[in-house]
Amino acid sequence: MIDRAHCVARDRSDPLAHCRERFHIPEGLLYLDGNSLGAMPKAAPARLRQVIEEEWGEGLIRSWLDAGWWDMPRRLGAKIAPLIGAGADEVVATDTTSVNLFKLLIAALALRPDRRVILSDPGNFPTDLYIAQGVQGLLGRHELRLVPAERILDAIDESVAVVTLTHVDFKSAQIHDMKGITAAAHRAGALTLWDLSHSAGAVPVDLEGAGADLAVGCGYKYLNGGPGAPAYLYVRRALQDSIRPPLSGWWAHAQPFAFDIEFTPVAGIGRNLCGTQSALAMAALEVALDIWRDVDMTAVRAKSVALTELFIALVEQDCAGFGVAVASPRDPAQRGSHVSIRHAEGYAVAQALRARGVIGDFRSPDLMRFGFTPLYLSYAEVFDAAAHLAEVLRSGAWREMKTDAPARVT
Ligand SMILES: *Cc1c(COP(=O)(O)O)cnc(C)c1O
């Protein structure tokens, strides 16, 4: 029997407990959705005010150099790099995850001109599949082959140009074997493009150790960069100068201020930039990234596992017999930092939880998703959230939330 006192005791000995102080957590809210939109770093408002009033207001155009705006994509990329096992010169912060997928997918196909297949998983995040379909339509000569990730190794053959997968599945939280899949792709002469949106800041990622070729990821989930924060992209050092950027904007140019009429891409990762980025959005992401400098990723992973284990144990202890099933891997080694719970009326249950200040989310058709962010979530909060879930199920309070018209953002 797990009780609240047990959870409070765990909070007292939590080596990451101090990190919570660096975030604004609304009073009375149990926020289990940091996997969709991370909490706001307390340093963000003052930093944004400084960018607006001093750097923009007073510095104006001088701030591109004086305030370091010009270097932001590379500087922030270097701060993301240690979280994903990359070198500082292998990552840039820029654009959105979707746009970065587009850029790198086209670049990957150009590196394998004699191959026709883009291999992915039907359970991949929709934008990843939509972008692949767009690329397919644009180039007009590729096949998008979809094979469930657990069988993807068997589907990698010499027709495949690129294998593109999301490392931690956005629905189930299943962690895919980056190293094994990358090795199989390389044996067949294919490239790999990984989406780290649900990985960075949540589970250990070792792009270099896995030999991964290309990767993208999101800045506003576990990295806490704010709504619409810049995303990032990674290109393995050895591949960088063979990339032909399809969005060949002036930020990718070797000499952007020469205003040459010929496009000559800069050497290195910078050629994957396109145009001017939002200094405001970059500044918000940067204060969030600076928090990670003081954080031990081993402790993050240990707490993530402990939080998800605790939640699953509480659901089993208190919600059994109410139509719920754990839809995430039971083996913590296979699981990212969220837990999906299946319930036939999952949308109504999630709405009933929201009405009680417990914020998770819902993924069609029947999955409630609860995200566990080790930097700012406590064990006691996990206990309380599970207690609310049990109460909503036991009382049937969700029945009043049934609707035929789900909200536009779930
Ligand atoms: C959140 C997420 C995205 C988001 O893409 P945007 O372009 O930022 O909207 C992409 N891929 C995955 C796997 C995600 O989880």
Q: Report the CATH topology name of the largest domain.
A: Aspartate Aminotransferase, domain 2
How many domains comprise the coordinates? 2
Count of DSSP-assigned helices: 13
The first-level CATH class name of the largest domain: Alpha Beta
The CATH superfamily of the largest domain turns out to be Type I PLP-dependent aspartate aminotransferase-like (Major domain)
CATH architecture of the largest domain: 3-Layer(aba) Sandwich
Q: What share of the residues lie within helices?
A: 25-40%
Largest sheet composition? 7 strands, mixed
Q: In sequence order, what are the helices and strands, one letter per element? A: HEEEHHHEHEHEHEHEHEEHHEEHEEEH
Question: How many beta strands in the DSSP annotation?
Answer: 15
Distance, first to last CA: 33 Å
Please list the strands of the largest sheet in the order they lie side by side: 4-10-9-8-7-5-6
Based on secondary structure, the structural category is alpha/beta
What fraction of residues sit in β-strands?
5-15%
